[in-house]
C-alpha cells in the first residue's frame, strides 16, 4: 500500500474520505468537516506528505486497491470520494457490492465510457501546463481559469500548483481510463449513494454525475450550479454530506 491516512475524531460511524487528483491537504479535509464519528482522511501517493507513486501506479485499479486497504484497516463503513476518489470508490462498489453502507461521490469525472471531448481537452491542457518549462507560468494561468470570479482563494493556487507538479504521469494516464468496465455491475451495490455534480466544471461534467447516479439502484443526485463547487458551495456541500451520513 502506498497511501497514508490521518484519523480525526472518534467513535462510530467510521467514514473514509478520499481526495481528488492534485488536491491540497486543505482540500482533502473539506468533505470530512462536520461529519460525526471517526473521519479517516486519506493521502494518496504523490500528494502531501505521501511518497511519490511508483511508475505505473496511476490507474483506477491501483488507487481502488489502496483505498480498500485503508478502509479495511480502519473499519470504515461509509466513504466520501472526490473526483479520482469517487472513481476509486465506484470501482470498489462494482467489485465488492456490499463493502460500504453509504457512499458519497463528489464530482465524478467518468464512469464506463471515454471522457467527453471538452473534459479530455481540459486534462490535456493541464498536463501540458505541468510539463511546460516556463517556471510554472502556464500552470498558474490554467489554474487561475478554474477559479470563479470574486472567489478569494488565498494561497490555494500556489499549493495546487505544487501538488500537480508531482503528478505528470497521473495527468497523462488517468484521462484515458474509466473507473468501471460495465456500469451494470453497480446495480448490485447495496449502499445508499449520494452523487454531487456540477453544472459548469469541464473536468467533471454533469453527464458523468448523472450516469453515475443512474447506475446505482439507490442513489440521489444533486447538481450544483458552479464551475468549482468545492470553492463556491462549501456550506451546501457540508450540509448535504452531514445530512446524508447522519
TrEMBL record:
Specify one Pfam family.
Answer: Abhydrolase_6
User: Annotated Gene Ontology MF terms?
Assistant: hydrolase activity
Q: Per the database record, which ranges form the AB hydrolase-1 domain?
A: 16-225
Indicate whether Manganese appears among the record's keywords: no
On whether Hydrolase is a keyword of this UniProt record, the answer is: yes
Alphabetical keyword list: Hydrolase
Kindly give the InterPro entries that the UniProt entry links to this protein. Answer: AB_hydrolase_1, AB_hydrolase_fold
| Protein name, entry field | Alpha/beta hydrolase
Q: Source organism lineage?
A: Bacteria, Bacillati, Actinomycetota, Actinomycetes, Pseudonocardiales
